[in-house]
Amino acid sequence: MKKIFCLLVLILWTAVPCRIVFAGDLSQKRVMVVHSYHKTQKGHVVEMARGVEQAFAGTKIVLRHEYMDTKRHPDLDFKIKAGLRAVEAMKGFGPDVVIALDDNAQSFFVKKAMAVENAPIFIFGGVNAKPSLYGYPRDNVTGVVERPNIRESFELLLKIRPEIKRVAMLSDNSRTSDLFVAYSKTLDLPVDVVAYVQPATLGQWQAVINTYKDKVDAFGVYLLRTVRRTPGKADMVPEEELIEMLNETCGLPTAGFFDTVAQSGVLCGISVSMEEQGYEAGRIARAVLEGQSVAAFPIQSTLRGRIQLNLKTAERLGVDLSWKIISKADVVIR
Questions:
Q1: What's the CA gap between 268 and 263, in Å, rounded?
Q2: Is the bond preceding 137 in cis, omega lying within 30 degrees of 0?
Q3: Residues 6 or more apart whose Cβ sits within 8 Å of residue 35
Q4: I need a surface site. Which of 97, 214, 219, 274 has the fewest CB within 10 A?
Q5: What are phi and psi of 131, to 5 degrees?
Q6: Predicted confidence band of residue 21 (pLDDT cuts 50, 70, 90)
Q7: What is the pLDDT of residues 269-282, one digit of tens each?
Q8: Which among 97, 113, 86, 92 is positioned nearest to 52, based on CA atoms?
Q9: Which pLDDT tens digit goes with each residue over 47-71?
Q10: What average pLDDT does the structure give for the chain?
Q11: What confidence tens digit (pLDDT) does each residue in 186-231 have?
């Protein structure tokens, strides 16, 4: 009888779904999400936050979002203060796990937060730099790196315009763009990159366009969110305005590698799914709260990109997009 009883207990134990086991365990857990940027950044922060929240669906954790807002305020002094504010918010909230998203959160928040007594576990996402730059991995830190789909985006552009050979790469003068340029230079691309240019002002942007419009067959475009309208002023030019100027002045095809490629007016691109970045960071955080070790989750990149097309730009440039290409796109601006 004793053997039969033990066998029944074993059968019942193995039959219980894992979700039932951890649901109660997470009811009192606290997770803090520290975003490098502001919550109004729709194509990036909003999607990452949505991904994190999806990872915790069905639990009763206490989830708090903190926004450093360093994209709209790129000055070093602001970033330092934003990081310190986030550290103080963490101390007051007392999270079991902190999810830190994008590079500025690592540089200006996590580095200081790890020194706090009884510091929590940190899971990062959306990191463009080499994790070793921030001292990762550590016993209490792991996460997800973001690697722009540069090669894949140019391969998509070449399916649309096979004759393209020479391109200029344009991006803003930010830390994130610096990391993009460094990473891009390590790749064997199917086009010849004649220059990487990072204008800081609207005047510089216009000068770059005029310089390269007759020297290249297309442009590659990365982030354009810190281009100032006037030197020394805080007013940033919307990326849509910059792309409109590029399209109007040059009339050349464009490939983009950021989250709002199609919405901004770029012809095509394959962007990293920021929702997937947030979800994967949240998934790891949830597993750690359930009792798995940080070491069980080596640093990795997300796998799936989002194909984006702008049919209005295609028509304007006289580009004929086949239905085969359109049908595979995740985002289509008509």
A1: 10
A2: yes
A3: 45, 48, 49, 65, 66, 67, 68, 101, 102, 105
A4: 214
A5: -55, -30
A6: very low
A7: 999 999 999 999 99
A8: 97
A9: 999 999 999 999 999 999 999 999 8
A10: 91
A11: 999 999 999 999 999 999 999 999 999 999 999 999 999 999 999 9
Residue type, 144: V
The whole-angstrom separation of Cα 168 and Cα 215 is 9
Give the C-alpha separation, 261 to 304, whole Å.
16
Helix (H) or strand (E) holding 272: strand 268-272
Burial 218-232 (b: 16+ CB within 10 A, else e): bbbbbbbbbbbeeee
pLDDT at residue 25, as a whole number? 63
- The two tokens of residue 103 are 């590079």
- Give the count of beta carbons closer than 10 Å to the beta carbon of residue 181: 15
Q: What strands lie across the sheet with 62-67, from one edge to the other?
A: 62-67, 30-35, 97-101, 121-127, 141-145, 300-301
Helix (H, G, I), strand (E, B) or coil at 103: helix
pTM: 0.75
- Band (pLDDT 50/70/90 cuts) for residue 28 is confident
Task: For residue 268, give the amino acid letter.
Answer: C
Contacts of 161 (CB under 8 A, 6+ apart): 217, 218, 253, 319
Euclidean distance between CA atoms 173 and 237, whole angstroms = 13
Residue 36 and residue 28: Cα distance in Å, rounded?
26
Name, in order, each residue with C-beta under 8 angstroms of 48's C-beta and a sequence gap of 6 or more: 35, 101, 125, 126, 274, 275, 277, 278
Using DSSP, state whether 285 is helix, strand or coil.
helix
106 phi and psi angles, rounded to 5 deg: -70, -45
